[in-house]
Write a structure and sequence with these properties.
heterodimer; A: alpha+beta; Immunoglobulin-like; 2 domains; 5-stranded mixed beta sheet; 10 strands; about 45% helix; B: mainly alpha; 16 helices
Chain lengths: ~280, ~525
């Protein structure tokens, strides 16, 4: 009878805690799946691990609240005497180990994938400055700086007459976006000129630090055309919050056209500057 | 013999009055009180800084402070809370309770004890003075990563000297605690009979001695890089900025456990008391604590997965970090088993301890998520991390400290605190702290980086919710100050045992505990005294 009582209360506690958990997930944002094979792997991994830890949490809290309900002094005046159980302790050491192994396998696979920067079709060097980014297209010989757009910059000042709400993509827009072709394996080389920055576009699925005096590498293949926005993710001084990143992924044809225009511009400006 | 010693002791009793009493005291209880009051003041100072941060983040656009000052606030908030609030609170609790719990008359090194406290006000004067200097307070985050930290003005020297002083204080405190625990236990108080709080502090003290010098080394290299032309961390001079991060986190990760292991100890005292049942799996608790301490030395690089490290290193640090979940899990399961089929009542200390178990577990579970390297490439340096470490530090460490204050306050003051107000304080804090920190998980997943003074429009709603939670939680802590003050002033007289289910030597002395206790070592062979621990098993 007592055991039955414990099961009923435990079940009720489980239902309540599951509903609360479901509510918590329903109101919030989740990670974005992104647009690269890696970002989708990360998204799946994130969901798996979050699912596993949520189930563990729900079970632990259910046991705890069942105990709080049933084993309060008013219902359970005489405390039991046990204080040890080797069997239970072995079980709750072994099961978490197994769960962790199950999580570690896909995590290892995705990580090994991420580290493989070979066979890149193009290389882009990204340099962090206080507080803007410089992009060098190593094959196409294009190079430019990318800084916060003017409207955002105006709206972010204290006492500005322009409200952030009136600016499109407030703090997430730049003057010169990074234009890249889709379905191309791009190797990214990261460094910085002054302090440590970190280049992060959530839709690509990773961030990587840009460190002065060092070159880091990463890679990506963007599978969908579109505009993807991110920010510097490593505190780099007063305008750390104001050096966004915009990646425009375009078709290979459009990219070739863009390269031609850029190279034309560069030649033109050099030509005009020379005399 | 004993009478003669007691008489001699009384002859030595001379109490300076006023300030001198506190300045020259070598009594562990008075020094404990000083630490706790200092910690409470710093908690309010650091909290005020957090409210500046939350106020600025209440709406997109910059409204109250400029980005430079915002960065000073995030940096100082962390330094003050870690080194000024949480660590001194635990040292204060150790000072008060360790001698009482092991039946020692005082700490082993009373004069050093005085010194290790009185260094702290000087350290924090140096640190807080930087706010009023022309170059401002440090603004590079509490981690002081170079090269950014080296860009600051001369105030960096004050910060580094302050950190040195805090380190000296912590190391002296730790030596004192180890010396006390290893040498001054009452006869019969074997190591495996010690209360869990004493065990966790013994292990914490070793962590402190191991890593505070590492921090001192790291910041000294910053000092010489900034002022004496060395280039330890300057790539242009042959140095390496990432080297600093390795050294810093070799200190930083054990530091995290320095701030949580004593909390585990506190909760392991409180749950058995109010469950009226022995702590489940005492021995495995001790071993779990020791394993967590050991593992804390080999996981530091999980704070820096994005700096770019070899695949093998990333895998090693991922696996090592995941392993920590096992001993931590054991602890949580043991607490729940302690409650299971007990006979529980829910006074304020128990409420805070239960709040700790639930909310610390949430922080621990998000920690498992953060260990997964590929996913960490997304989580790193976002508000998800901010949410994670505030769950383990605020609803973990700070909740445990509050639980311990309610638990032992009657022993310290001789009065019961106001139970109704205590319960209101618990429910208020627990509700609002979740409003404050839970939405930050969503902000991080949605892509909001940490340490930014202004944000894109899509992050507005959850920032508003978080700020409301922050202000309500902050205001609620004034109630805590009031409850403590009221209890110190008077109230219902507390009995020696205070709590019906309480066991242990500290409950055999009268409430308030007299200035000198255990002049003659107590008899620990009474099984009831060590009933919470392994004593009778």
């Amino acid at each position: 009878m007592k055991k039955l009582n414990e099961w009923i209360v435990g079940l009720a506690a489980l239902v309540v805690i599951m509903m609360i958990t479901w509510g918590i997930f329903a109101v919030g944002d989740n990670m974005r799946p992104g647009v690269t094979p890696f970002s989708q792997d990360v998204y799946a991994l994130h969901n798996t691990v979050m699912g596993v830890v949520t189930v563990i949490g729900v079970l632990v809290f259910t046991a705890m609240f069942t105990s709080i309900i049933l084993h309060r002094r008013s219902r359970h005046p005489n405390a039991a005497k046990f204080s040890h159980s080797t069997k239970a302790e072995i079980i709750w050491t072994a099961i978490p180990v197994l769960i962790l192994v199950v999580i570690a396998v896909p995590a290892t696979r995705v990580l090994i994938d991420m580290e493989d920067t070979g066979d890149a079709e193009m290389n882009i060097k990204i340099t962090g400055y206080q507080w803007l980014w410089k992009y060098d297209y190593l094959e196409d010989d294009i190079s430019f700086y990318s800084a916060l757009d003017r409207d955002s910059n105006r709206a972010r000042q204290i006492g500005s007459d322009l409200a952030p709400q009136d600016v499109d993509n407030y703090l997430l827009d730049v003057n010169n976006p990074l234009v890249v072709p889709v379905d191309t394996k791009i190797r990214v080389l990261l460094t910085a000129d002054d302090v440590i920055h970190s280049w992060w576009v959530p839709d690509l699925g990773w961030k990587r630090d840009a460190i002065p005096g060092m070159v880091n590498e990463a890679w990506t293949i963007i599978e969908q055309e579109g505009t993807y926005r991110g920010q510097c993710a490593e505190l780099c001084g007063k305008d750390h919050g104001f050096m966004p990143i915009v990646v425009e992924a375009v078709s290979k044809e459009d990219y070739a056209e863009w390269v031609a225009t850029q190279q034309g511009q560069t030649t033109a400006s050099m030509g005009s500057a020379a005399p | 013999m004993t009478d003669a010693t007691a008489a001699q002791h009384d002859a030595h009793e001379h109490h300076p009055k006023g300030l001198a009493r506190w300045l020259f005291t070598t009594n562990h209880k008075e020094i404990g009180t000083l630490y706790l009051i200092f910690s409470l003041v710093m908690f309010l100072v650091g909290g005020a800084m957090a409210l500046v941060i939350r106020a600025e983040l209440f709406a997109p656009g910059l409204h109250l402070v400029n980005p430079e000052f915002f960065n000073q606030m995030t940096t100082m908030h962390a330094l003050v809370m870690i080194f000024g609030a949480v660590m001194p609170a635990f040292v204060g609790l150790a000072n008060w309770m360790v001698p009482l719990m092991i039946g020692a008359p005082d700490m082993a090194l009373p004069r050093m004890n005085n010194w290790s406290f009185w260094i702290m006000p000087f350290a924090f004067t140096l640190l807080l003075a930087t706010l009023f200097m022309p170059s401002g307070a440090p603004a590079s985050g509490w981690t002081l990563y170079p090269p950014l930290s080296l860009q600051g003005g001369n105030s960096l020297a004050f910060v580094i000297l302050a950190i040195h002083l805090m380190g000296i204080s912590s190391i002296m405190g730790a030596i004192n605690i180890i010396a006390t625990i290893l040498n001054m236990r009452a006869p019969g108080m074997t190591l495996l009979r010690m209360p869990m709080f004493v065990w966790t502090w013994l292990i914490t003290a070793f962590l402190l001695i191991a890593v505070m010098p590492v921090l001192a080394g790291a910041v000294t290299m910053l000092l010489t890089d900034r002022f004496f032309g060395t280039s330890f961390f300057n790539a242009a001079g042959g140095g390496d900025p990432v080297l600093y991060q390795h050294i810093f986190w070799f200190f930083g990760h054990p530091e995290v456990y320095i701030m949580i292991l004593p909390a585990f100890g506190i909760v392991s005292e409180i749950i058995p008391t109010f469950s009226r049942k022995k702590l489940f799996g005492y021995t495995s608790m001790v071993y779990a604590t020791a394993s967590i301490a050991f593992l804390s030395f080999i996981v530091w690089a999980h704070h820096m997965f994005t700096v770019g490290m070899p695949l093998g290193a990333a895998l090693f640090f991922m696996y090592a970090t995941m392993v920590i979940a096992v001993p931590t899990g054991i602890k949580i399961f043991n607490w729940v088993s302690t409650m299971w089929r007990g006979s529980m009542t829910f006074e304020t200390p128990m409420l805070f301890a239960l709040g700790f178990v639930v909310l610390f577990t949430i922080g621990g579970l998000s920690g498992v998520m953060l260990a997964i390297v590929p996913a960490d490439f997304q989580y790193h340096d976002t508000y998800f991390v901010v949410a994670h470490f505030h769950y383990v530090l605020v609803t973990g460490a700070v909740f445990a400290i509050m639980a311990s204050v309610y638990y032992w306050l009657p022993k310290w003051t001789g009065h019961m605190y106001n139970e109704t107000l205590g319960k209101i304080h618990f429910w208020w804090s627990t509700f609002w702290v979740n409003v404050l920190f839970f939405p930050q998980h969503y902000l991080g997943l949605a892509g909001m980086p940490r340490r930014i003074p202004d944000y894109a429009i899509q992050f507005t709603e959850f920032n508003v919710i978080s700020s409301i939670g922050g202000f309500a939680f902050g205001i609620g802590q004034l109630l805590f100050v009031y409850i403590v003050w009221q209890c110190a002033r008077g109230g219902q007289k507390a009995t020696a045992n205070v709590w019906e289910g309480a066991r242990g030597l500290e409950w055999t002395v009268p409430s308030p505990a007299p200035l000198h206790t255990f002049d003659n070592p107590p008899n620990v062979d009474d099984p009831d005294l060590v009933a919470h621990t392994g004593g009778t098993r």
